[in-house]
Every structure is written in structure tokens, then in C-alpha cells.
Amino acid sequence: MFEIKWLYEIILIIYGLSLIGYFIDFIQHNRRANRIAFWLLSMVWIIQTAFLFNQIFMEKSFPIFTLYDGLYFYAWVLVSFSLIINKLFRIHFILFFTNFLGFFVLLLYISTSAQEHMQGQGIQLVNEILITHITLAIVSYGFFTISFLFSIMYIAQYRFLKEKKGLRWMWRFGDLNRLDSFSFKAVTIGVPLLTIAIILGVVWAYVSNAEFYWFDLKTIGSILVLAVYVIYLLLRLVKGYQGKAISVYNTAAFLILLINFFLFNILSNFHF
Questions:
Q1: How many whole angstroms separate alpha carbon 148 and alpha carbon 182?
Q2: What one-character DSSP code corresponds to residue 167?
Q3: How far apart are CA 74 and CA 238, in angstroms?
């Protein structure tokens, strides 16, 4: 059973990294990220297919007769479709969201299956999902913090150039375009990390039968932070916001993050 738990964890890690790669490609049209994500997803598909063949040919059972088995087959179908879409159609929008849904379904299957069949190891796996949820959320906040610092540096540099002050400090702040680009890239990484963290948190609460409130301030705050940074990406990609305007928005977004991290944690019913 330990080997199965370990394999489940490997699958989720690989799938999560693939999802991040597809998101980066979706936002930045990064072909290298797309290739890496494709091969990572292929590894997930190979492992899933091995499990599926073992179920069909060794255990003589097609995995569709229970809700949990149906979740696994559904996740396998979604991964298969994703690989086909990636190679044949290059439709990035549907590709990313298909993988997003596939990750959620596979995570739900693994979590419920662990609780049902793996006894102590299953409980440990579910607890590790909680640890990963918290870790990814904090790491995503780290990327948002870095993005905020780049935005502050951009605003300061912009002011120095406009007022022709602090010229001896300009070389330490860096080029405006690079500061703007680094801030954007940090948010691009932070958004999928926080998204995965929220998914892990919801699945953990569902599977572990924890007292979970959708209207808890921390839950609402985390979703609000994600929405604020998704809007940042939309403003930049759809509306074409760059430079000072998007840097000011990013600074305000970081203030919302701080409120969520410090104040909402205190007022939450079940978060630390």
C-alpha cells in the first residue's frame, strides 16, 4: 500500500507541474513550457493507462461500475483528449481548462480512493494533501510578493525618470520594461499555484469530512485573492494594461493579499 500511496503522490506532482506549464503557455504563448507540459502530461497518461489495463486485464473489471472508478476513467479520458488536442488542434484555451478539470477529477478520485481502501496510508495521504494545500498557497503568496516588489520598483523608477531625480540609484532598480516583465511573470506562476492550492483545500475538506464553510472569511478571502490576480492577467492580456497603471493595480492587489493572510486567518473558523 505504501507503494500505491507513493505513486499517487508522484502522479499528482507531475500533473500539477504539467498544469502550471500549460497555464504559462496559455498566458505567455511559451512553446517551451508547452512542450515540457505535454511530456509531463504524457507521463501521467502512461501511468494512468497502466492502472487501467491492470484493472481490465488482471482484475477482470472495467472501471465504470462505481462512482469512484468512474472518476478515474473520466480523468483518463480527459488526459487522453488533452494530449490529442495538444498535438492536433493547438487550441490553448480548451487545452488548459480541460487539464484543469482533469486534475480536479483525478485528485478527487485519489483522495476518496485512499480514504476507502488504504486505511492508515490513506489518512496519511489526505493529511499530506492538506500540507501541500498550505505550502502551495504560501509559495504562491511568495510569487505575488516578488511581483509586488517589482511593481514598487517600477513605480519608483518611473518617478525618478519623470522627475529626473535619484539618477545614481536608477541602475540598481533596472530597466522599466524588465521590471514590468518580471512582475508579470511572477503573477503568471503564482496564479496556477494558488488555484491548485484552493483545489487541494476543497478536496481535502470534502474527503476528510472536516467542518468546512464556503462562507468562511478565509475561504472567501483566498478566492478573492485569486480573482484579483486573474483580473490582473485579464487587464494585461485583454485590455493591454502595462507599465505604471498595471503596477499600481498590482500594489493594490498585494494589499488585499495581506488582509487575507493576516486578518482573515484570525477570523477564520478552521484555518490556522
A1: 10
A2: G
A3: 33
In angstroms, rounded to a whole number, what is the distance separating the alpha carbons of residues 220 and 8? 29
Q: What is the pLDDT of residue 2?
A: 45
What b/e sequence results for 182-211 when a residue is b if at least 16 CB atoms lie within 10 Å of its CB, and e otherwise? bbbbbbbbbbbbbbbbbbbbbbbbebbeee
pTM for the structure as a whole:
0.81
Predicted confidence (pLDDT) per residue in 218-229, tens digit: 778 889 999 999
Asked if 272 and 230 count as a contact pair (C-beta separation under 8 A), the reply is no
Which has the closest alpha carbon to 86: 104, 99, 77, 74?
A: 99
Alpha-helix runs per DSSP H in the chain: 2-28, 31-53, 67-88, 92-117, 119-163, 170-173, 176-207, 217-237, 243-258, 265-267
